[in-house]
Design a protein that fits this description.
Length: 301
């Protein structure tokens, strides 16, 4: 890799935001930093202090069969809240998913449904009653508005449609956070704190460092970007991505040239066929005129 390319890659890493997949993954790869960020996000979203957590970065869950679709969760977090009456741990499970690809907007509801289903499958062991299923909360942090209302916070849950006043708690919460969304008029300090955090996650620049949370997160981001192994991994991924793009471009150009050549040949054949038909038509017209002339000459005799 040339020095010019290295400088371009370093610049891209420097300008990367927490919501970018590579940077979020690298932050989560450090246990201390990952725990701090998990606690920070959950505390802001849930509006309470969250401390006793454990997380797994890039946790993969297989499908229920070989032909089923598996998933990879960016941050799989469990929070121990106490103990149940039968002596088991009382936990909540959180799946935190930063996403900046607006093409995913349409599939978000069913994506969150599938993620929750696979989480449930691996949580419910044989012999455990359904009441043993913990609360499962999926949290999507999005750089695009998922539902078009320009709101920062959307939450979906299961209700009895015919009787919405009846409580129906299946332990599933689906939270969608739009990083550039607005606050309700009656927003309190907790909502404002969450908005500040989301703005920094989406644009991780110093001008978005405005409170204790974002100051702590900014330190983590800067330290992560300066790590040699992080730089090395990004350089390799950056170079590979460039190679793949170049290969795709060359393949596209080759395909385009082949298509263009084929179209040119087809057009040439079509033009040749048209010229042949025109020549045949002209020759037939000449013969017709010659025949008329002969008739006229014979009549004149």
């Amino acid at each position: 890799m040339t020095e010019e390319k290295r400088e371009e890659a370093r610049k891209q890493l420097e300008e990367m935001n927490v919501i970018d997949d590579f940077l979020f993954t690298e932050i989560m790869a450090d246990e201390k930093n990952g725990l701090e960020v998990c606690r920070m996000i959950l505390s802001c979203v849930l509006k309470r202090e969250v401390r006793n957590v454990h997380y797994i970065a890039q946790k993969a869950l297989p499908g229920i069969s070989e032909s089923s679709h598996g998933i990879r969760m960016d941050a799989y977090i469990t929070e121990k809240k106490g103990s149940t009456d039968d002596g088991h741990d009382d936990i909540s499970v959180y799946d935190v998913e930063p996403d900046k690809k607006s093409a995913h907007r349409k599939g978000l509801p069913k994506r969150s449904r599938y993620y929750g289903d696979l989480i449930d499958v691996q949580l419910l062991n044989k012999g455990v009653d359904y009441d043993g299923l913990p609360e499962v909360v999926t949290i999507f942090i999005l750089s695009f508005d998922p539902f078009g209302e320009r709101a920062m916070y959307y939450e979906a849950g299961t209700v009895i449609k015919t009787h919405p006043h009846i409580p129906y708690d299946d332990g599933v919460r689906r939270i969608f956070l739009y990083t550039e969304g607005g606050l309700p008029e009656d927003a309190g300090d907790e909502e404002k704190k969450l908005r500040t955090l989301l703005r920094y996650i989406n644009r991780s620049t110093e001008d978005n460092v405005t409170d204790d949370n974002t100051r702590k997160l900014d330190i983590i981001v800067k330290k992560t970007k300066l790590k040699k192994d992080v730089n090395s991994r990004f350089m390799k991924s950056w170079e590979r991505e460039r190679e793949m793009k170049q290969e795709a471009l060359e393949a596209g150009l080759a395909e385009g040239r082949a298509e263009g050549l084929a179209e040119g040949r087809a057009e040439e054949r079509a033009n040749t066929e048209k010229e042949r038909r025109r020549a045949d038509e002209a020759e037939a017209r000449v013969k017709e005129l010659e025949a008329r002339i002969r008739v006229l000459e014979e009549t004149a005799k």
